[in-house]
Amino acid sequence: MSTREQMSIVIVGHVDHGKSTVVGRLFADTGSLPDGKLAAVRAECERTGKVFEYAFLLDALTDEQDQGITIDTARCFFKTQRRDYVIIDAPGHIEFLKNMISGAARAEAAVLVIDAKEGVRENSRRHGWLLGMLGVRQVVVCVNKMDLADWREDRFASIEKEYREFLAGIGAPPPVRFIPIAALHGANLATKGSEMPWYTGPTLLETLDGFTKSPAAQHRPLRLPVQAVYKFTDGGDDRRIVAGRIESGSVTVGDEVVFSPSNKRARIRSIESFNTTERTRVCAGHSTGFTLDTEIFVTRGEIMSRVDSAPQVGTRLRANLVWLGRKPMETSRDYKIKLHTAALPVRIHRLISVRDASTLDPGAGADRIGRHEVADVELETRQPVAFDLAEQDQATGRFVIVDGFDIAGGGIITATVADDQEGFRLESRLRDFRWISGGVSPSERRALFHHAPALVLFTGKHGVGKHRYARALEQALFRARIATYLLDGANLLLGVGNDLAAESARHELVRRFGEIAHLLTDAGLVVVSTSNAIGLSDHASVRTLLGDRPLLTIDIDPAGTATSDCDLRLRGDESELTVVTRITGLLRDRGVIGLNDTTHTDL
Q: Are 537 and 474 contained in the same domain?
């Protein structure tokens, strides 16, 4: 097994500026081609009457050779004395921008090629912006085809000056170096070109070898986005296996881990894999499964990590985003964000800036992002999601945006943005991380009660019937042998909130309410609550403190004018039986009751 260092490099630039020729020449000059490959390509060119080009060494697809453009991202390898390179030749044509982004997303460094005769073009600028946006910090700019510019130093200097000023204008990191090259002649690629004695800097290969390798994935904090959870029941097998790919870090049997955003903790009981020897440790790059010492319920899209290095959690993300959809991305519409294994609704919370990446002109408008435009934007997800900043972990810090069934955009997370629940979320996370569990597990409570915990929260103005419906629901649940409790807001004010004035300390009242609901649901109860102090505007805060336990919001609005989200909206003139029937139906749909068909037959 090779122990040589490996680095991924992406090659970008405007169409016909010579990217594939640069790559082909690097393969030839470093002796990285298979035996006879160069001669075979030369012979094929003679047979077909084509002028030999080094680009033919890379362009393997027939369509590419016929059209003379690169239409996919090709992964090839070459070697220097220092390391092995995985070189990604990305498309230069504007119509293949998606492929360029997918290539750059895997790269640790980049080579951007500019034609010395044509100069800085549209995609030269656009690719420079995208590299900065995608977090690629090690970039070398090769000014190619210097032979067509008569090897002139002033031509090279003018292109360098123009491009540096462009990058500075968009706030992109400056390139590590500009190098004048002639890929067809091999000048300044692997060896110095005698045609340009005025250039005294390193060659392209020397520059690449000077780039810093990213830390090995296994030495970074543990990140395993959950892909699936499998439950086995055949033959007495009762394993619940959490499966996914370890993007970074490593994990050993016995390690304590936490899942975000649910904050659930457990220890690794075993490492599971199909048709392999038993393992006690697994590292980054492996797809595997785990069983845990505690039966916790986690879902696809959560991230497994260590407690002391957990990812960030929030509903608002600041991001650099490029839009490729044919329809503009609009602030008034919902989309889907795919971030590691999570997929959830998202919309634009705030557009900070939008520009055309090639011209620096302002974008399509104040409320939309047009095709091929890039934006500094705040996105808001419908529920909390776990993530990292892209500069810390690319696998959990890069995302795509789906419009309908098409991938229409993508970008990187640059910062987390505090939302209205940030304080409550921090409190609940610290609480859950330090929570001391009792001797009875949640699954044992479910088995005894035949139902899961939940909170049913009635909201609405004074006198609309909240208390009447809440009492009827509690009585019906109790008669059906469901462990339930009515948490009345008035009792909250008389007890743990007697030192508070509801109007002057609403935030603290909501916090105390949420923590009491958390305690009661931790005991396995279905909590029914009504309060004039806790309304629809507070239900997101209560949900944050409650964690992943189901919360049903029942809003009573006789006027029929309310528009806020809720699970069920009533007029207040419905019969108690009708309301109880509709709410218990929702509880069944959420998997709270009906865990055993022989129980709760009264509902």
A: yes
